[in-house]
């Protein structure tokens, strides 16, 4: 590997940004492609698929063979609210390969007894996320129903470009949330990125069922990012 390519690749990995090390098997030359870099033609389509799958592969384009060594940050789920939904959601997310963090300043809820073996932070979101910033490979599920807590997290999630942002609440609750976010300076297109009501529409009623809906929505959004708009237009219509 070219030392320059190695340095560039390590820089991307340390910053939790996805990159592909593209190596021409014929002559051994390599280069680093960051997610979002323009790559034309069939090679570009193959690179896009590799980013979505997260799997390294060998491809053939125009009679040449290439090895795509894919480096995608492990997806992370940050749950705002140490509630019953979170108790069911955390183990589901971990089984799905997600790093999980739960943030809730309410110390009566954010206890190790209720959330064993989970990264738990009994802090306000703005404090917790200042130390552990959000990024495009992070999903945020906001489930406290308390604007003083939820809005802080939503503000940071929108600014960070998180691949999934979901918020619990009825349409009436979300309408008020939209007004508050607009007052913060967010535009209509930005606010429309929020999945609310949170999760896929499977008729979920219990906390465990809602957790299933949320995790399914997170996975779907992660695996289709870049292929379709992340807005749920039917939910915001």
From TrEMBL:
UniProt-listed InterPro entries: MoCofactor_Util/Proc, XdhC_Rossmann_dom
Pfam families in UniProt: XdhC_C
Span of domain XdhC Rossmann: 77-218
Protein known as: XdhC/CoxF family protein
Species: Phyllobacterium endophyticum
Taxonomic lineage: Bacteria, Pseudomonadati, Pseudomonadota, Alphaproteobacteria, Hyphomicrobiales
């Amino acid at each position: 590997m070219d030392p320059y390519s190695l340095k560039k690749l390590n820089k991307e990995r340390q910053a939790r940004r996805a990159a592909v090390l593209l190596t021409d098997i014929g002559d051994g030359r390599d280069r680093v492609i960051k997610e979002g870099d323009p790559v034309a033609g069939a090679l570009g389509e193959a690179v896009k698929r590799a980013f979505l799958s997260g799997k390294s592969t060998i491809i053939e384009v125009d009679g040449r063979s290439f090895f795509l060594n894919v480096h995608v940050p492990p997806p992370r789920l940050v749950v705002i609210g140490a509630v019953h939904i979170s108790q069911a959601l955390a183990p589901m997310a971990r089984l799905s390969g997600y790093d999980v963090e739960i943030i809730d300043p309410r110390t009566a809820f954010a206890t190790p007894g209720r959330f064993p073996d989970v990264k738990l932070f009994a802090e306000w979101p703005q404090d917790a996320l200042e130390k552990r910033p959000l990024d495009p490979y992070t999903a945020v599920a906001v489930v406290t129903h308390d604007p003083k807590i939820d809005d802080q997290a939503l503000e940071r999630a929108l600014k960070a470009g998180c691949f999934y942002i979901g918020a619990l609440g009825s349409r009436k609750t979300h309408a008020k949330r939209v007004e508050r976010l607009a007052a913060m300076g967010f535009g209509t297109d930005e606010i429309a990125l929020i999945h609310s009501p949170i999760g896929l529409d499977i008729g979920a009623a219990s906390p465990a069922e809602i957790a299933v809906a949320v995790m399914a929505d997170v996975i779907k959004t992660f695996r289709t990012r870049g292929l379709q708009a992340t807005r749920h237009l039917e939910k915001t219509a």
